[in-house]
Specification:
CATH architecture of the largest domain in chain B: Orthogonal Bundle
Order of helices and strands of chain B: EEHEHEEHEEHHH
GO molecular function, one term (chain B): protein homodimerization activity
CATH class of the largest domain in chain B: Mainly Alpha
InterPro entries (chain B): ESCRT-II_cplx_Vps25-sub, ESCRT-II_cplx_Vps25-sub_N, WH-like_DNA-bd_sf, WH_DNA-bd_sf
Oligomer: heterodimer
Strand order of the largest sheet of chain A: 1-3-2
Strand order of the largest sheet of chain B: 3-7-6
Distance between the termini of chain A: 37 Å
Keywords (chain B): Protein transport, Transport
Number of helices of chain B: 6
GO cellular component, one term (chain B): ESCRT II complex
Family (chain B): Belongs to the VPS25 family.
Order of helices and strands of chain A: HHHHHHEHHEEHEHHEE
Helix content of chain B: 25-40%
Number of helices of chain A: 11
Number of domains of chain B: 2
Structural class of chain A: mainly alpha
């Protein structure tokens, strides 16, 4: 995986020389030497810091978050580098940690995909991943999931965090949610998962054809909802599984 | 305005814990999307076998979805006003037979099944165990003595077709034999 940009991890020995060659055109040699020394010192300090706090980074989400913020602000990408995962990752074992989390996210999304059509609520995902990890996994936050999903991008599997009516969801199918589906999902969330044609007509001013088509597509084509044909009010109601909450 | 209901488990009056999916209104509808329906059938299968084991029930008929009776606690949910329609139950039964966790009994019809909440092979072991612990090895018994013993056993009320299957399995390993006797069958 390639990350561009100025990152401390990007300055490995081979590249360093080349970069300094470019720099030396505009900066004098002594300044360059000075810079090099500073970077080396900084790198040592950061290495020391990382190994001292490795366990805390892995187990404490707020510390982990603060650490990642710090890395970002000084232009260090813990996952970048010439070697897979970068020397950072190797130092911290963070690459493994991220990788493991990524695998767990994929695991949960794939195993619940038939049930929820490839769209899972963030809270539910966190709950299930935490279950997979068990007590020794430490606690996982939404931020961890978001970061991990970024690393899944190269897989091209379409993992994305989407926002639906203020609720964060994770989408794991390639298909884009069209606007109508997003509207329906939003409504479903407001009503415990249940949506009927009349709701879309009355609250969103849709035509009946539009409402019917969108709902039927979600049901038949995309498997994003379940049908209830004994609904007392409307006879036919659609239940969006990702907005329903049920115990295991 | 429909009040939103948190889907939760529920313990029935016979002490059976219904899973939370049983509180979901769409669970009772046969789903037009085949992938979704596969999940629904899988969940109903688990539920039915579990309940049968709990209540020691062996038969399930399509008509049980309509008439009141032993299966009401599972085939209906009055708290959400839903019931499993006969057509859907029929489809679920077909699924269970295909998976060999039930068999159409009597044969050549599709309205009634015998449930294998314990497989015939497992019943064979139960029979063998029971016979040896009650000191009845190497004796001749009638079927009646097995299904209605003086002291309740795990085999009490086991339907004859299932008992025969279990005995046939034992016979294959030479642990039992069915002997035809004039006034009743025995082994």
């Amino acid at each position: 995986m390639h990350r561009r940009g100025v990152g401390l991890a990007a300055f490995d020995r081979k590249q360093t020389t080349k970069r300094f060659e470019e720099l030396s055109n505009s900066i004098s040699q002594s300044q360059v030497t000075h810079l090099n020394n500073q970077l080396a010192q900084f790198r040592t300090a950061l290495t020391h810091f990382a190994s001292t706090h490795r366990d805390k980074i892995k187990s404490d989400p707020s510390f982990r978050h603060a650490f990642q913020q710090m890395c970002t602000s000084i232009g260090v990408d813990p996952l970048a580098g010439p070697r897979k995962g970068g020397w950072w990752a190797e130092l911290l074992g963070l690459g493994d940690w991220q990788y493991e989390l990524g695998v767990q996210i994929v695991d949960v999304c794939v195993s619940t995909r038939e049930r929820n059509g490839g769209l899972i609520e963030m809270a539910e995902l966190i709950r299930m991943v935490s279950k997979l990890r068990g007590v020794s996994g430490g606690s996982i936050t939404e931020d961890d999931i978001v970061q991990s999903i970024k690393t899944l991008e190269p897989l091209g599997a379409g993992y994305q965090v989407v926002d639906i009516s203020g609720r964060k969801m994770v989408r794991s199918v390639v298909k884009e949610l069209d606007d109508d589906q997003t509207t329906i999902l939003g409504l479903a969330q407001e009503h415990g998962g249940r949506v009927v044609e009349d709701m879309l007509i009355q609250r969103r001013q849709w035509s009946r054809e539009r409402a019917r088509t969108a709902l039927e597509n979600m049901l038949l084509r995309d498997g994003l909802c379940w049908l209830d044909d004994q609904d007392e009010e409307c006879g036919r109601a659609y239940w969006v599984t990702s907005a329903m909450k049920w115990e295991a | 305005m429909l009040t939103t209901m948190a889907l939760s488990t529920h313990t029935t009056s016979t002490g059976f814990l219904l899973p939370s999916i049983h509180s979901a209104p769409p669970f009772f509808t046969q789903q037009p999307n085949p992938a979704t329906e596969a999940i629904v059938i899988e969940q109903w299968t688990k539920l039915i076998l579990s309940y049968a084991r709990h209540r020691n029930l062996f038969y399930l008929r399509v008509e049980d979805a309509e008439t009141g009776g032993d299966w009401d606690e599972v085939l209906r949910n009055d708290r959400i006003n839903r019931r499993l329609p006969p057509t859907h139950l029929s489809s679920i039964l077909a699924g269970m037979v295909a998976k060999n966790v039930a068999t159409y009994e009597p044969a050549k019809q599709t309205r009634s099944v015998l449930l294998y909440w314990r497989l015939p092979e497992e019943w064979a072991e139960v029979l063998h165990q029971w016979a040896s612990t009650t000191g009845q090895m190497n004796t001749i018994m009638t079927f009646y003595e097995i299904t209605d013993p003086p002291v309740n056993s795990p085999l009490t009320n086991i339907p004859l077709p299932l008992l025969r299957k279990a005995i046939t399995i034992l016979a294959k390993s030479n642990r039992a034999q069915i002997i035809a006797i004039a006034d009743g069958e025995g082994l």
